[in-house]
Amino acid sequence: MDKHGLDAGRTWRQVYEISGGSWEQIGEAWVPDVFAYHISLACNHCDKPICAEICPSHAITKRFDGIVLIDVEKCLGCGYCSWACPYAALDYDKGSGHMTKCTFCVERIDKGRSPECVAACPMRVLDFGDQETLIVKYGSINSSYPLPEPDLTEPQFLVSPHSDSQRPNNEPADVTPSAPLDMKEQPLIGFTLLSQLAAGTFLALVILEALSIQTGQTTYTRWLSSKTLFGITLMMIASMLVSLFHLGTPQKAYRAFANLKTSWLSREIFFAAAFGGLLVLLSGMHWLNFGASVAQSVIAWAAALTGMLLVYCMSRVYMLRTVPVWKSPHIPLSFFITTLMLGELAAIVAITNWPESSTLSTAPEGIKYLIPIVSQWLVLSLFGLLVIDMLVTFVWWANFDPPDSGLHQSANTQERFRYISGLRMVLTFLGISIMGAFLYQYSVDPIPVIQLSTLAWLSFGLVLVAKIIGRNLFYKSYIRSGL
User: In this predicted structure, what is the pLDDT of residue 218?
Assistant: First the structure.
């Protein structure tokens, strides 16, 4: 701490105490069967550093000699690297707005001297040097609870395990201090939901407009009107602005495109910018009545595809190999379900809130002709998405058992969130049922008895609240391997 001028309470090397065991009664005597040992950890300068792999700005790099360093001039302070590191080695500096970690005292290494921690250790517990020499001296064992499997990142360190280091794999143990795992990511909840809503709504309206053209309707009010397109564009821009609140140094956000080769976060940001740019272009063409309809259609479909690629990249951001509870097909499934479900409902809200469409009996002839055709497909798709959503949720929470995955941190459990998860499913079911029942009734007997816009807003509101609850639960489920 003194060497690198860190503030009080911040340290790049942490000593963990692992303790457990109990007392056992033998005859009239109570015999202790307790254990405790310590592990000193900092950045392990991994051979496959996942922090460098996923960093969107290329701020984390590995030197020729294997030392992993952070370039603070490039760091965005997004904290993505700290999500992935199974050794809790990265620390966020609120003062500067960027990430920090052990540098292996690189300036001392370059002068042929040992790192400060090795030189200062009074018990000579720490050592450094050529790996082959160290293996000959200490052996090659580096598995000791609560360390993760070495093949995740191939850390360049060796641990001589304590005699009780395997006991926590079979019995409860406490790790002190415990790494903070309670993620409070409100900006990311806003960004992911708003951008998915924008992508889903746009796709739904593009498909409806294509269907209208295919039916030969020339008197219909455009499904993808200038007002709805402008609203979707504003929604996407808002989502990107909200995401800036997640960054420690938002003024460096432009650097996030630097690592498209290996970082899914870079790819997510690239497709978000591309989707937003295409929406702005298309909105301008609509407002200015510029460009042939064929050109507008091509741009619209390109934007719809870009929006879906954005959702896919967004899901891959969370499928980290060091976070086994997220490395699952349920992530892209749930993200696409949210996109399509909210998108269809928002499209219905947009259509039914045109002044002339406040009731279906007063809707334009083209819309009255198309709604009976479209409504059945909307009903089937909404209920299909509902069924898949419920199945994914049931499977996810049924399999969410951190101890079975070798994750023994203080974690959110299935039982703790069963009630809230159930509430989310009930709200989703009510929202889809209200909208689906009305659309199905209209497809059979198009006699409106209530303003469709009222039901559309109610249905959309219920499902949106459910998705906000679900996204919050998603971030609460974060538990990584190791510390």
Answer: 45
Q: What is the CATH number of the domain that holds 467?
A: 1.20.1630.10
- Tell me, what's the pLDDT at 4? 65
33 found inside a domain: no
Tokens of 107: 């300036």
pTM of the full structure: 0.90
User: Do 86 and 200 sit in the same domain of this protein?
Assistant: no
Both 151 and 250 in one domain: the answer is: no
- d(CA 357, CA 451) in angstroms, rounded, equals 9
481 within some domain: no
103: domain range?
A: 44-170
> How confident is the model over 267-307, as pLDDT tens digits?
999 999 999 999 999 999 888 888 778 888 899 999 999 99
Q: Are strands 68-70 and 91-93 parallel, antiparallel or unpaired?
A: unpaired
d(CA 282, CA 297): 9
Q: How many percent of the chain have pLDDT more than 70?
A: 83
> Is residue 442 one of the residues assigned to a domain?
yes
Place of tokens 């989310």: 424
On whether the CB atoms of residues 18 and 169 are closer than 8 A, the answer is no
**Residues contacting 248, CB < 8 A, separation 6+:** 75, 76, 77, 78, 79, 92, 93, 94, 96, 97, 98, 99
Q: Is there a single domain that holds both residue 137 and residue 201?
A: no
**Averaged over 390-406, what is the pLDDT?**
71
